Amino acid sequence: MLSVVGIWLYIFLTTFLVGYGLLQILLRYIPYRIRHKNTYLLCGLAAVTVYAQIFSLFGRVGLMANVLLLAVCAGIAWHSRHALGHMLQETGSDRKEKRFLLFALFLLFAYGTSRGILHYDTGLYHAQSIRWIEEYGAVKGLGNLHCRLAYNSASFALSALYSMAFWGGQSFHCAAGWLAFLLAGTCMEITDALRAGRLRTSDFARLMGIYYLVNIFDEMISPASDYFMVLLAFYVVIRWLELLEESVEEVFPYAMLCVLGVFLMTVKLSAALILLLVLHPAFALVKGRRWKETGLYLTLGSLTAAPFFIRNVLLSGWLVYPFTQIDLFQVPWKIPKGLADYDAREIQVWGRGYTDVTQYELPMKEWLPDWFGALAGSDKLFTLAAVAAVGVLILYAAGMTVGLWRRRWDMLLVQMTVAGSFGFWLCTSPLIRYGCVYVYLMPAVVFGSLYDRILDGGGQKGEGRWRGVVRVCGLTVGLVLLCYKSLALGRQITASYENRYWLVQKEYENYETASYVIEGITFYYPVSGDQVGYEDFPSAPVKKELKLLGEDLADGFAAVL
C-alpha cells in the first residue's frame, strides 16, 4: 500500500503540473475560470498519456521518459510558483470535512489498489502489452506474436510510464486505481446535494458512479482498459451535466470535455460515440464564427488521437485493428486480413455469450434471450431500466419536436449520446463490463432529468405537495443506495481482508511456461491454459511461427503465410 501511495503522489504531482501548465497556455487565448481543481489532474492525465504514447514511438517508456517529464514539471513549477502558492492557500481554506473525506478516500482506494483480484485478461495480455512498452515501445507487427497485443489502448502507455519497472524491481500497476480515486472524489460532491436536500441529474449519475466504484473496488488493481474507459466516461458525463445544470454558456469547458472524449476513444475505441457531444460546442463556435478557437480545439483533438492511430498501424498494420473495413497501409508486418476478421468476430460472439465464432451470423432475436438470461440479477434490472429509459427518451424527444413541452436540446444531446452508445454496445458485443457505463447512465440521465423537470415545474413557491413527495423519494433513493453500497463495500473488504501488501503492491500473477527459439531469440508459452503473466517475456498463449523483421525484437515481426 505504501508503494501505491508513493506512486500516486508522483502521479498527482506530474499530472497536476502538466495540466496546470497546459491550461494556463490555453487560458491566455480563451479567458475562463477553472471551477474544479481536479480539472488540472484530468487534463494532465490525458496530456501525459499522449506524451507516453509519443515516446513509445521512438523507444522504451521508462527512466528517460520520466526524467524528461520531471524536467517539464520543474519548469512549470518554477514559472508558476507564485500562482501555485496562491492556489495552495485557497485549497487550505476548503472545509475541513471535505479535506478529511478526500484523505479518507485516498487511503481507502490506495488500500484497494494494493491488493485484490487481477483480471483474467491481465495474465492473458495486459501485463505483456505493458511490458513491451516498458522494454521496447511500439514494435512493428507485435500483433503477429499474439493478436491481443495489437489491442492498442492509451491506458497501457500510461500504465507503463508510471510502472517504475526501470527501478529493477516489480512493475507497479496503480493508474486505474488513481483514476478510480479521482472519480470517487467527483462523486463525493453528492454530499453537497444531500445537504441542500435536492438531487440533480448529475447527482443520479454520481450515484451510478459510486455503484460502479464499489463493484470494481477489488479489481481496480488490474490495468484493464475497460476500467479506464468506464471511469473516464462517468467523469465526462457528470461534468457535462453539471455545466448544463449551472447554465454555463462558455464554450471552453464543453470543448475541453470533448477533447477528453477523444482521449477516452483512444483508451477504448468502442467509446467513440461519446464524441456526439461535440455537436454542442461545434454549433456555438460555428454560429459565432469563432474560427481560430475552432482550429485550436481541432488541433488539440488531433494531437490527442494521432499517436493512438500511429501505434495502431505499427502494432498491426491496420488503422483500427481488428476492423478491416479501413485498409490504407500495405506494410510487411501487417496482420493478415483473415486473422483480423476472425478476431473481430470472436470479440462480438464472446460479448454475446458464445465461444464458437460460427455463431456470429445468429440474428439478434436468437442470441439476445440467451444473453439476457445469463446476466446477473442486478445487471438484468439495470438493463431493463436502460431499455425503459430509451423508450421514455423517444417519447420525450417526440414531444419536444412537436412542442408539447419546453425544448431542452442541450440535455437531449447528452441523453441521445448515452442512448446511442448503449444501443451500439447492445447490438455489437454486449459483454457487461464493456458497456456497463451506458447501462448505468441511461436511466440516470433520463429519469434524473424527468425528476429535475418535476421539481422545477412550478418554482419554489408553486411547489405542490406531490412535488415534495417526489423530492423526498429522490433523496431516499440516493441515501438508500449510498448506505447499501457502503455496507456492501465494508462486507467486501472484511471478507477479502489479508494482512499483506501494506508496503508493496501485489505483483502480477505469473504462470508456468515452456520455451522455444526463433532465430536465436527465446519465446515462451503457457504449459496449460492461455495465461502467461508478466515475468516470462516475450510470450504468447500459444507457440507461434514468426518471421523477425531484423536481428532484434525491437525490429518487429511479420506473419508466416
Major sheet description:
2 strands, antiparallel
What integer is the average pLDDT? 91
* H/E topology pattern: HHHHHHHHHHHHHHHHHHHHEEEE
Helix percent band: 55-70%
Beta strand count: 4
Strand order of the largest sheet: 1-2
Radius of gyration over C-alpha positions, nearest whole angstrom? 24 Å
How many helices in DSSP terms?
Answer: 20
Amino-to-carboxy terminus distance: 48 Å
* Classification by helices and strands: mainly alpha
Low-confidence segments, ≥5 residues, pLDDT <50?
Answer: 458-462
How would you characterize the overall build of this protein?
The chain is mainly α and 561 residues long. It is 62% helix and 3% strand. The protein contains 20 helices and four strands. It has helices at residues 2-27, 38-56, 63-79, 81-92, 96-114, 120-135, 154-161, 175-187, 190-196, 201-215, 225-245, 252-267, 279-287, 291-316, 337-351, 364-373, 377-402, 409-427, 432-456, 465-495, and strands at residues 513-518, 521-526, 546-548, 557-559. The strands form two sheets. The chain has a two-stranded antiparallel ribbon. β1 and β2 (521-526) form a beta hairpin. α10 runs antiparallel to α11 and α10 (201-215) runs antiparallel to α19. The longest helix is centred in the last third of the chain and has 31 residues, at 465-495.
